[in-house]
Amino acid sequence: MKLAGDDVPVAAARRIALGAQGFASGRPVGRIDVRRMRAAIRDAGVLQVDAVNVLTRAHYLPLFSRLGGYSRDRLDDLSWGPKRELFEYFWAHKAALLPVEYFPLLKHRMRAAEQQDWSAELAPEITAPWAVVVGMRRLQAERPGFVDQVLTTIAERGPLGAGEISPDEVRRKRTDPDPDPSTGTMWNWQDAKIAVEYLYCAGLVTIAGRRNFERLYDLTERVLPAAVLAAPEPDDPQRELVRVAARGVGIGTAADFCGTRGHYKLPTATARRIIAELVEAGELIPVQVEGIKKQSYRWHEAVDRPVDARALLSPFGPLIWNRDRTHQYFDFFYRISIYTPAAERIHGYYVLPFLLGDALVARVDLKAERSTSTLLVPTITPEPGAPDLTEPLLAELRLITTWLGLTNLRITATTPLARSLTAAG
User: Whole-structure pTM over 0.90, yes or no?
Assistant: First the structure.
């Protein structure tokens, strides 16, 4: 049954979404300290982790979009330092850096993973790689006790990379038959990798640090603060996670909050139950967003405020990772091109949307050529009807060049906007 709710123009919904993600207040002036970084992390909610490094690692970009030239070393300290305030786990369907206070909210996921409860109601929440699901079935049958040996090795020698964890030195060869063809060659992991990833999903080990971005695993009790590990679980952790998602989304449909492509992933029946409870509690306000047929909801603290932003956005950032919602709210059809064959790419390889005011006005392909200390701009594509972007985009390109520690900015694109940028630079 359709709920009653005020009509919300899509432009207002867009501003509410931007405000929920911390873009309404503008970038800070002056030194960017840890306090400001914490606030930006709270606004973003999570920082997705991805190995692609053509520009910089994905988890660094959301804070740059909100803060400008902050210290990446300081974020590393918050993520993997001795007084860490973030930890790595799965959020929605991807690995991410999360505030440590989220750890108790995810313990139910970890228990289900430890029990290999892949087919239970919680299965939609458990985002273990398919190699773990299939591999653990094989290891239990073929190598009983092996996972315990891996855990003992980490306890004795950790933190360790997956390649350093092989208790009996037995290694599978690429020519060995795959136990399940559906895993494909990309999941042809060593048994120790399968075991340690299972232990990670189960919360028994966690990511202690990174070595050239390789994960280093250690016992969770040696990595996370004792107070975090001892914190009690809420009575309904899924409800708390939906509240976190709703704060980060600001306004959207149930699928935007906790669907497959949304901010967080839950079984459909559970999501419906929780959303109904939050509506009853007055925390979610039913609304109807212009142009969107499905019922939408506004987080009760999310408001429509003017937005005067200027930012290059991470392709993996929480503002735009739901591509369908991005299309609906911003009239901006966006797909990242790193998985697209070169001949089929239209806007470049690592393409960042450019946010100006409350609109996505251009697509900017960027590459950090570290050998020459140069930021390359191979392609720039303004949106139809975009204003003159020369001054704001050039300022943003100069800012990201400096932030990345590069010396030169080189625009090789040949569009009229690119020529204008080159002339102005």
Answer: yes
